[in-house]
Write a structure and sequence with these properties.
single chain, alpha/beta, 9 helices, 8 strands
Length: about 220
């Protein structure tokens, strides 16, 4: 079946949102008299959400008395600073332009709550270009369940077999595969050092957004 659309995970796939996460973690540490930490410690656990980033930034267990207050502070800060430093990955702007030039449509399926995802898309000028944005707010079960991807396909009125879903986490590939889409895993995202995209069962694994152009060309020509 001919490719009709490309769906992207947001954090670590479409966008490098780590700079905002890192900035917040460093600010919270600085205000408590703590030295800066290696930003890679934060990047390595972004897929685990605020909880994982607080654990990495403060070396605290979730059961610690101060943990929940730190997590809530992190989320509050992120609400007001979620699109200060975030940006499209190198090569992604051209890829999106190529997708649109090929008369394909694209959208986003993310586990990021709508209250963060929507303003990021708006502030980066992507909201009007994206055909669909699916967040946990829209479904009863988030990725790795196929429900978010299936909902995106339904809203686009497309057969999942005509859609490519791109992500940087095993949950993305499982969600897309179980929904019936083609899947592409990226190595450039927020992947834990102990993880390996080659083991996720994706249809293709790429190193850079520009590599996805070749994947699209092959899909469009039926190669």
């Amino acid at each position: 079946m001919r490719l009709r659309a490309v769906l992207f995970d947001m954090d670590g796939t479409l966008l490098d949102t780590a700079p905002d996460f890192v900035a917040i973690c460093q600010a919270m540490r600085a205000e408590r008299g703590l030295a800066p930490i290696d930003e890679q410690r934060v990047r390595d656990v972004i897929s685990g959400g605020a909880k994982a980033m607080i654990q990495a930034s403060f070396n605290l267990a979730p059961e610690s008395a101060e943990f929940e207050a730190l997590r809530l502070e992190f989320l509050e800060r992120y609400q007001h600073g979620c699109a200060v430093h975030s940006h499209l990955y190198e090569g992604m702007a051209q890829l999106l332009a190529d997708i649109e030039q090929a008369k394909l449509i694209w959208g986003v399926v993310t586990n990021k709550p709508l209250r963060f995802a929507e303003p990021i898309m708006q502030q980066l000028g992507l909201a009007q270009r994206s055909a669909v944005l699916i967040c946990p707010d829209h479904v009863t079960r988030s990725k790795p369940d196929p429900e978010p991807v299936l909902l995106a396909c339904s809203r686009l009125d497309l057969d999942p077999a005509s859609v490519l879903f791109v992500g940087d986490d095993l949950r993305d590939i499982e969600s897309g595969r179980d929904a019936g889409t083609r899947t592409a895993a990226v190595r450039y995202g927020y992947i834990h050092p102990d993880d390996n995209p080659d083991h996720w069962g994706a249809d293709v694994v790429v190193d850079h957004p520009s590599d996805l152009r070749r994947v699209l060309d092959q899909a469009l020509c039926g190669c």
